[in-house]
Amino acid sequence: MMNDKLIAKNSHWVGYVDDRKVPFHRLILEKGTTYNSYFLDTEKPTIIDTVDISFGRKFVENLKEYTDLEKIQYIVINHVEPDHSGALPALINKAKEATIVTTELGAKELKEMYKLHDKKFMIVKDGDTLDVGGKTLKFLETPYLHTEETMITYALEDKVLYPCDIFSTHIATDELFADNAKEDITEDFKVYYSLIMHPHRPYVQDMIEKIRDLEIELIAPSHGYVLRDPKKYIDLYDEMSKANKDKKALILYSTMTGNTKRIANYMANELEEVDVETETMNIKEDVDMDEVKAKIEEADAIFFGSSTRYADMVGGIEKVLKEIKTINLDGKLGIAFGSYGWSGEAVEVIKDYLAETDIKLVDSSYVIKTTGMDDIKFPIRVKFNPDEEKIEELKLSSRVIKDILVG
């Protein structure tokens, strides 16, 4: 076969080099990029990730140089975005016996994206392994790096990590290995990290903890170069994702039955867990406004919460909202939250007050544009007392605020 690129024994790069100026996440990749896919020529032939949807047909044709497509047994999809899963429909139509290996959410999204409901799927969870005949693959879930369904794959015998977008670089190159590149790729590597991974840096730390005990000799990402100095690049991710512990959050709330207080406490505990110094204050009618204003001026993020009673706020929170119009809130985050039993107008009224100030109002639109997360809803609204599922959402919402704070 022509120009075979071997990364490990019986493990081949079978991707596509896109040397155009590539539109990507509202940017133009001036240096282009590569879509890295890998073929494991094992007893049960396996593909790890595919290429961009634009090059699906060419990708499938190229694979014929390596194997009879009907013999492919597994197609591992670490991440469902079309630059990695885009060739899956073209491939699965030829590799009719193949099983698609991905996370539970990944399977759901792939079925919907490409109408693959009649195809075979294998759902893997954190730590699961798969014997593909001569190689053992271990799967680790890495949510929000950079989307919720993401996982990474580790080949135990080869000591190769296949992390999809993680540890990638946007450079169009026919040279496979970073240490053979004509120029030092470190700056391009850091730029990719800052654009794609940095908004999710707490999850970078989670990922590093998961791979810490793996013996990794090579990292084979899905964009750019394959990395034969894995420690260097893991250490860079570790360093760039370290938390800034100097941020402060203030949670102000008025409560009627105690439910909004519970929400405040859950969020405060989670913010403290992720190294954000946090204080909560129950705002009653006789609130000391000077004290509250002083604490607001010290905080980087301020949560304003209220229960809903007769379609309105309770306690003294409205007094605070009226006063903050006189405070310079530029550069601070403002978050509305609260509990309700029926329609929950109080949270929306808080949001309206905040919109009249110069605070950076955190709503769902802002979160999507800042972090790419479309499943976290702001303002935070909880019907009655938060159940276990809602508590997990509150924790995740708190981590999102921390992500934005230390950006």
- The total number of structural domains is 2
Average per-residue pLDDT, rounded, comes to 92
Termini Cα gap: 46 Å
Give the beta-strand count: 22
Q: Outline the biggest β-sheet.
A: 7 strands, mixed
Would you state the CATH class of the largest domain?
Alpha Beta
Task: Please state the structural category.
Answer: alpha/beta
The number of helical segments is: 13
Looking at the overall shape, the CATH architecture of the largest domain is 4-Layer Sandwich
Examine the coordinates and then state which fold CATH places here, giving the name of the CATH topology of the largest domain: Metallo-beta-lactamase, Chain A
Quote the beta fraction. 15-25%
In short:
The chain folds into two domains: 5-240, Metallo-beta-lactamase, Chain A, CATH 3.60.15.10; 248-402, 3-Layer(aba) Sandwich (Rossmann fold).
Structure description:
This protein has 407 residues and is α/β, with parallel strands linked by helices. It folds into two domains: 236 residues, 4-Layer Sandwich (Metallo-beta-lactamase, Chain A); 155 residues, Rossmann fold, CATH 3.40.50. Helices cover 33% and strands 22% of the residues. The chain is built from 13 helices and 22 strands. The strands form five sheets. Strands 1-2-7-8-9-10-11 form a seven-stranded mixed beta sheet. Strands 17, 18, 19, 20, 21 and 22 form a six-stranded parallel beta sheet that branches. A five-stranded mixed beta sheet has the order 12-13-14-15-16, with no helix packed on it. The longest helix has 18 residues. The radius of gyration is 24 Å and the shape is elongated.
